[in-house]
Amino acid sequence: MATGTDPEARAAAGGDPAGRGVHHAARAAIPDPHLRRDRWWLQPAVTVAGLLAFVAYSTWRAFAGADYYAAPYVSPFYSPCLAENCESMPAGADWEIVGGWWHLSPALLVLIFPLGFRLTCYYYRKAYYRGFWASPPACAVPEPHRTYSGESRFPLVLQNVHRYFFYAAVLVAGVLTWDAVLGFRDEDGAWGHMGLGTLVLLANVALIWAYTLSCHSCRHIVGGRLKHFSRHPVRYRMWGWVSALNGRHMLLAWASLVSVAVADLYVYLVSSGAFDDPRFF
Amino acid sequence: MTAVDRQSWDVVVVGAGGAGLRAAIEARAQGLRCAVICKSLFGKAHTVMAEGGIAASMGNVNAGDNWQVHFRDTMRGGKFLNNWRMAELHAKEAPDRVWELETWGAVFDRTPDGRISQRNFGGHEYPRLAHVGDRTGLELIRTLQQRIVALQQEDRARYGDYEARLKVFQECTVTRVLKDPAGRVAGVFGYERESGRFFVVEAPAVVLATGGIGKSFKVTSNSWEYTGDGHALALLAGARLVGMEFVQFHPTGMVWPPSVKGILVTESVRGDGGVLRNSDGRRFMFDYVPDVFKEKYAESEEEADGWYEDPDHHRRPPELLPRDEVARAINAEVKAGRGTPHGGVFLDVSTRMPAEAIRRKLPSMHHQFKELADVDITAEPMEVGPTCHYVMGGVEVDPDTAAAVGVPGLFAAGEVAGGMHGSNRLGGNSLSDLLVFGRRAGLHAARYAAAYATGAVPEPSAADVELAAAEALRPFGAEGGDAAVSRGPAENPYALHQELQQVMSDLVGIIRRAGEMEEALHRLSGLRSRARRAGVEGHRQFNPGWHLALDLRNMLLVGECVARAALEREESRGGHTRDDHPAMDRRWRRVNLVCRLAEESAGPAVADSALGLVRLERQETPPIRPDLLALFEKDELAKYLTDEELL
Amino acid sequence: MSYQARFKVWRGDAGGGGLVDYEIAVNDGEVVLDAIHRLQATQCPDLAVRWNCKAGKCGSCSAEVNGRPRLMCMTRMSVFAPEETVTVTPMRAFPVLRDLVTDVSYNYAKAREVASFVPPPELGPGEYRMKQEDVGRLQEFRKCIECFLCQDTCHVVRDHEENKPAFAGPRFLMRVAELDMHPLDAADGAGIDRRRAAREAHGLGYCNITKCCTEVCPEHIKITDNALIPLKERVVDRSYDPLVWLGSKIRRRGARP
Question: 2Fe-2S ferredoxin-type domain: from which residue to which, for each copy (chain C) (predicted)?
């Protein structure tokens, strides 16, 4: 028959009257959940691998509570350092705000802020919803869940706190900037020196700033919330800059994730004596 | 009797493009219940393809602009064959129609001081086209669509139903305008494309806003909807078509790849600095400035290039001549062997503007060439050639009310209406035409229908409904054909359509000759008899073959009108170029050619005849009002008007 | 250059159907819609397909090609190897009517639920003044051709039919964003709270910004980054910002007699 509407074909197609999603009874009867033939799984797989690697590394380093300071360099995982059990960092951000009762790694006190910033970041949300939660794994590939309410309910409605983490992340980025400046000293605290570690910290802090400022919340706060750009020329220009950065938010998210791990690793290697920081002058 | 759904409304609008939606909005605003019937989904009408802008003399960019200048440009563009009253109303009302769109949410490009920006366009003396990049038509259709939704929201608040007073019947085709025995419009007959079910919408007033006829031609910028439905419906209902010989070929359509041949390359490319070159690299338009335009156009490249920056002290580049001139010039260059590999000429912006400016000013052209032809217009020239774009001819209407002459209750607006553009339409005047006359048609249809609010409404005769249903079903029983008129195997409607397009393009195309058009009429008659055997398989549910078989009737009728009128007019003017009569003749300016259906074929189930179905009459054009004539220099008028008219 | 391309096209209706194999002649420079048209003209005249402008401007010929939501008129055959089988199905998030045509009325219903532009009462026609920088954002959204591919690909409704009543979909959330960013929209004065409506009536919270809408948009509108996320941030301003919440409480208390 010209139309190809054959009841038998429909039975074979598994037209389930109570079917979910693309198998809903009213939709085109196609047995395959999706017909994509490209390597759609590659991107979520790479995302998962990348994020897991970082989580594994950072867990180890955050709980270690050691080898995070090698004057003049401090690991970004441990700055600011807020407990009494911190190593002494001359002129650095070792503020003993929390006091002496804290016996775990001091990294845990502060990592929560950059971690929260990244966890609620609009890019990372996409990445882990797709990669870990398969919601959806890729476009037009069905997700496995029976129900879905997205970010409309607890707990995911809490993703809306992103902008407060952004404020915290700006403070942390400020501290890391100071840490990078301190890198222009030698081991004894004398200014006017520089080593490979200085470059590592500088590169890291630059990427951290770029990532932080490219944040969607930042874009909103800087100017996106306005109705009349023409009445706020300065904020409009700033919004333009942030928007340009924002276009590369994903790239900056990964670059800064790698750079922060590399910076920490560098400090670890120097601090543990596995590597000697080459000094330029 | 065939089971037919019946509904009753005050005003029916056929077509949901700019004119149809504007008419519907107006009819609803007048307090009447209005139904809109369209072949596509709501919001997909061909108006979305309009790129350049809406011509309206708001004077935002050049304060010297006003309605008189716009009127003048329109008359010049149409070679003075325009219905002067329509051109006057159009020029006067266009600014209000544009401003009104803003209050409905349209977002035009802006001038530095925050007003609606206006751009230059061929034939317009000042920057006049309100625009949004190169997607003005989309903005127009979306704005009107959203205005209709807004009105529906009001109706829901008041009556509890979105569609209480304004309803869009989408994906439905109208095949007949129904009349009562007294000859008054009584409604329309049509079918739902989705289900194939027939329906009758009864209404005392019907507004035709169906657009044009481009699908009768092979290379066209028009979509499948442009099968001349409204032209044919009007003819069949007893109305007349005026000026059907004038078909505009847009000078710049894509010529490659074959699948997109004909798709439009907006005139803004030239308005913003793009130039035409032949395969020798020559800017050939300087060779084609006709005498009537000599004083207004630049003679050297330096002068032309200066115009973009300083229009007050330079004359316009000849690339911005009216469309008919440019299309003929390109046609001549290609015929002389100076065309591009794919049979067009080069249109170049890549050497004229920085890549960034091209992407910003012409985003959808950049996108279109990138995606469809794999050409980066910031780096290489486009290949373009003429494409059938617009029909100036259409239903003869009263200029003030848009009422079709001779059929009480029938109205027409937009491309389906004739007269406004004379022998050639200026770019940008189409969208303003839709708005100005769409509103007028809606307004006067509502006033006309309101008169029936208390009295007896015209009722369609049952026999006419029967005949309309039988006509629509004929393709399913086509095998063998109707013995009385045509015998033979069933014909494939797609093949017939292709043949029709070939005939129209080859024989009644951009350059015309008497012998070829006689041949065209002969071949059309053969196609007409075969079309009665156009047969389809399958069933009535969303069956495109069936739809096309029914549309063939309209395309054939319209094709015949174009061919007959073109054969009759022995001169060249605007969108009508005769190889055998290459000059414009002032005596012909006083003549409108009017098509009507032959008497013996007025019924729905007509007997076929080689004679054709269309009769042609000559009609004298109404004299232009003296105060409007006074807007022109005497010298200029002498080029168009005969000596006795000038007295 | 011309070759015989292998196609699988979904034929059927709401009652059922399946993929049918065809061989179609394809020429240099053609798109999927050309092949479908040739199929219609030469092999199955009753093949149902929506199309209109054939230039990517009207958004009618939406379908899924090799499992990806696409406009058929903008999918060039040259992206497939000649020996590759091209599978064309209707959009799978909407009820099928016949062959490649789906019932997209969900979208029209959602369009009606978005409160329209409210003209500023103090300005008449012709008095609107907006700078280009004020309207640039909106104009990106108004490029939308309503092909509904974003609605089709969005897993919120594609994979969960039950979410359709509560979720307007990317296209119409973008419409809310557009109106909320319109410099002259007077919704506030008319008692319309667009941000609240975005959350409560249009289901913005369902969006988990996984960006498939942006990926499939044939107009390359950055739906997620420029419309949905900014709208989410605006909703945060309105509903989740404790300072704003406190401020509005105090103001409301102060307003009491």
Answer: 5-92
- Domain extent at residue C224: 105-255
Q: What is the pLDDT of residue A91?
A: 87
Q: What's the start-to-end Cα distance of chain B, in Å?
A: 62
Q: Evaluate whether residue A10 is within a structural domain.
A: no
Q: Say whether residue B110 is in contact with chain A using an 8 A CB cutoff.
A: no
Domain around A72? 43-271
pLDDT at A6: 34
Does residue A184 surpass a pLDDT of 90? yes
CATH tag, B252-386? 3.90.700.10
Return the residue in C158, C182, C199 with the most chain A beta carbons within 10 A, the one to mutate for interface testing: C158
- Partners of residue C230 in chain A, C-beta under 8 Å: 216, 219-220, 224
Tell me: do C120 and C24 sit in the same domain: no
SS3 per residue for B378-420: CCCCEEEEEEEEEECCEECECCCCCEECCCCCEEECHHHECCC
Distance from CA of C210 to the nearest CA of B (A): 25
Contact A13 C17 (CB under 8 A): yes
Q: What's the whole-model pTM score?
A: 0.93
pLDDT at B566: 97
Judge whether A278 lies within some domain. Answer: no
Q: Please count the residue pairs, one from chain A and one from chain B, whose beta carbons lie less than 8 angstroms apart.
A: 5
For C64, the closest of A10, A11, A35 (CB atoms) is A35
Distance CA(A141)–CA(A22), nearest Å, equals 10
- Which residues lie closer than 8 Å to C248 by C-beta, 6 or more apart? none
Quick check: A234 contacting B, CB < 8 Å?
Answer: no
Would residue A47 count as lying in a domain?
A: yes
Q: Which residue, C102, C122, C157, sits at the end of a domain?
A: C102
DSSP-assigned letters across all residues of C28-77: TT-BHHHHHHHHHHHT-TT-----S-SSSSS---EEEETTEEEEGGG-BG
Within this chain, do residues C15 and C91 fall inside the same structural domain, yes or no?
A: yes
Chains in contact with chain B (at least 3 beta-carbon pairs closer than 8 A)? A, C
Q: How far is A260 from chain C (nearest CA, A)?
A: 25
Is A2 close to B114, i.e. CB distance below 8 A?
A: no
pLDDT in tens, C78-95: 999 999 999 999 999 999
Is the confidence metric ipTM above 0.90 for this complex?
Answer: yes
Q: In this complex, do A136 and C155 lie within 8 Å of one another by their Cβ atoms? A: yes
Which of C102, C119, C136 is at the close of a domain? Answer: C102
Q: Flag if B48 and C108 touch (Cβ within 8 Å).
A: no
Residue B491 burial (10 A CB sphere; 0-12, 13-18, 19+): buried
- Beta carbons of B538 and A230 less than 8 Å apart: no
Same domain, C183 and C63: no
Contact status of B539 with chain A (Cβ, < 8 Å): yes
Quick one: C96 and C110 in the same domain?
no
Residues of chain B predicted below pLDDT 50: 1, 479-481, 601-609
Q: Which of B400, B385, B301, B311 is nearest to B343 (CA)?
A: B385
A107 domain residue, yes or no: yes
